[in-house]
Amino acid sequence: MAVHSLLLLLFAVSVLVVAADEEPFIGVNIGTDLSDMPHPTQVVALLKAQQIRHVRLYDADQAMLVALAKTGIQVVITVPNEELLAIGQSNSTAANWVSHNVVAHYPATNITAICVGSEVLTALPNAAKILVNALKYIHSALVASNLDRQIKVSTPLSSSIILDSFPPSQAFFNKSLNSVLVPMLDFLQSTGSYLMLNIYPYYDYMQSNGVIPLDYALFKPLPPNKEAVDSNTLLHYTNVFDAMVDAAYFAMLFLNYTNIPVVVTESGWPSKGGSNEPDATIDNANTYNSNLIKHVLNQTGTPKYPGIAVSTYIYELYNEDMKPGPLSEKNWGLFDANGAPIYILHLTGSDALLANDTSNQTFCIAKEGADPKMLQAALDWACGPGKVECSAMRQGQPCYEPDNVIAHSTYAFDSYYHKMGKTPESCDFNGVATVSTTDPSHGSCIFPGSLGRNATFTNVTAPSMNSTASDSSSAYNPHSSELRIRSLLLMVIGFLICGVVLL
After folding, report:
1. Is 328 left (phi over 0), alpha (psi -120 to 50) or beta?
2. How many whole angstroms separate alpha carbon 392 and alpha carbon 396?
3. Any bridge partners for residue 69, and if so which?
4. pTM of the model
5. Are 276 and 270 in contact (CB under 8 A)?
6. pLDDT mean over 247-268
7. Side-chain half-sphere CA neighbours of 249 within 13 A
8. Cis peptide upstream of residue 83 (ω within 30 degrees of 0)
9. CA angle in degrees (0–180, nearest 5) for 120-195-145
């Protein structure tokens, strides 16, 4: 038992090292089964407007690769399944594919990875025996072009190949696939690549016959007695996504692979379904994708590896009206073919990523869980040296209710944010504020963004929050000794916790 625990600890540390190489990100898959597919330049314009910096293509469309050139957007391209057999049987065919689809576009188009097929082991089992050859041939072509360090090679797998996925500590890959999976994992480990995994809690929920609660699938907060507990590790799981990611890590550990990180190449929720799909709704799609984005970007990690977030590509950018199958298959998109959002994501703190309100309405609000004393300090500053007009929050005025520091500071923060032209630095307030696409207006309390007062005061110098301006006796300096000591203590506690974890 002690040896097993030591192995798990070493595994956690090795994953930490791998995961620390880059910040986790949210990307988007771009399917093309639309009757009116937008032109590549329109697609790229939408990506830029939504500040999407990572995309995955299901092919290597030349027009898309040209349109993505010089944008800085990181692009994952795909060897389609129908081309897999030819590439897996011929090194020269693989070399030609890389020459035509990678070398011809790189580095102007920032290609970062190649998906060799998609869910080959489940969708195209007859090609399984040549999958590893295809991976190696594509990688060899990159080596010949000196691009193997810049571009990873892997293949997206369906999470259905992981058996006994709960509890995660008992998970293992379908053993009938080991003859392919073992050399594939050898390849991923030796090339420093990652396991690509498609995770769909929607299907897990639908197929569970009521065993999986909807809230558990949607990342909704659960009371402790509703959390799923791994009886072997005693870790508590609050959502399907984390449980599946940890199951993948344990399945790799079962085969003695301990340092291959996971990237989720597909995950999402449909916004519309047939009569037998009652939970394919706009509200559920919004809830799932909003919570997924926050979960990844907040670097929450999983119960087994807290703080080690898993980069994820949302399925998908557009609704695909030509997709075969049930109605839900056509309705996984964040946007319609015209670029209009299917719904406005409930996001805060995502730095405008996928803030898919095409009217570009953004607001500055108090962060969830922010220290009330810090909020009060920032509120005092905004209504003092920050020179925000705070009279609307006085008793009897439209924004007095609710009478609490969160509501009042949100109004003050947003007023300052719009006064300063919505610059990112004007919505910080020592870390207790964040940009949101959700209008915080309520009742007769209308926020500046709702009124369209977006003027940029280019000749105004924003007062520093260090200001001790004498014209405001109520101003509270957020850089006071008390707050500096508090921040220092939090930092020390953080280092101590890290030290305990590593020990």
Report:
1. alpha
2. 9
3. none
4. 0.70
5. no
6. 96
7. 31
8. no
9. 85
